[in-house]
Amino acid sequence: MKYFEFGQENKTTLLLLHGMCCSWEIAYKDLIAIAKEKYHVIAIATDGYNPNEPEVVLTTTEAEIKKDADWIVTKFDGNIDIMYGSSQGGLFMMGLLRDERIHVKTAIFDGFAVPHIPGIFSGILCKPIAKFATKLMMNIIHKHPSLMVKPLGLKNVAELQSLMYTGFSEETLYNNMVEMLTYKFTDDKFEGFNRTNTFIFNGSNEKAAIKNVHELKDKGYHITSKVFDNAGHGSMLKRPSRLLSEIDKAFEESIKM
Questions:
Q1: What DSSP assignment string belongs to 107-149?
Q2: How much of the chain exceeds pLDDT 90, in percent?
């Protein structure tokens, strides 16, 4: 686990968590270049997806959350102004927001899709399914990336590859798959939504994610949602000026609440 800081002379903190099959630099390099002019930006490099630590693998979601939370408490006394999580980064955010030591003014989830995995897959079938899924995903990512374009709502392979880090190990991806099959999104997982001002960004091509937002609102969670036209999963990361503007607006809105 590594942490990278920029614009430390600025008072307002913006913490960034990247997604699965990505790296902090691929996800946020362009955003950081302009955000550091007004924010103290902190980018977290998740274990298993950091090119500078090729020997480190992702173990479990809870282990990652614990390390991040402990560091935030030590470094910032648990106080973060804006926390932004892309894709799987939103999963880590959910855990951080439930930690009573952590206080976040504005939480922004981007590309937040809640997988509804049948319980049968989390039992005895979990490991063989995860092993098969890992082999399949490694093959698709390295040999047939075009198969991922439509499910993610992206324009083409070039856009997909601009958002992906492929240097992770098979062990990291396998652990990720096990986590996806066994992690249960029960109501208590969303308790952190009520401890901050929660915003969810999605691209108009992310149908499953948009459906999830409606489900969360139906459950009574106070969420401000925004859908961006002609965008897929992670597309806004390649529109840094627009994304920064939306982050600014969300933070300003939080201050007024």
A1: EEEES-------GGGGTTTHHHHHHHHHHHHHHHHHH-THHHH
A2: 77
Distances in Å between the alpha carbon of 31 and those of 16, 135, 243? 10, 33, 8
What is the model's pTM? 0.94
What is the rounded CA–CA span in Å between residue 204 and residue 209? Answer: 9
Q: Which residue's entry shows tokens 């939306």? A: 246
Q: Which of 111, 115, 76 is nearest to 96 (CA)?
A: 76
Query: How many Cβ atoms sit within 10 Å of the Cβ of residue 217?
Result: 13
CA–CA separation, 250 and 149 (whole Å): 29
Nearest to 112 by CA among 213, 256, 6: 213
| pLDDT tens profile 70-127 | 999 999 999 999 999 999 999 999 999 999 999 999 999 999 877 667 666 777 789 9
For residue 241, CA distances in Å to 7, 19, 109, 130, 236 come to 17, 20, 18, 38, 9
Backbone φ and ψ for 147, nearest 5 degrees, come out as: -70, -15
- Please, which residues have CB within 8 angstroms of residue 222's CB and are 6 or more apart in sequence? 193, 194, 198
Residue ranges of E strands in 150-257: 197-203, 223-228
Q: Which amino acid is at 122?
A: S
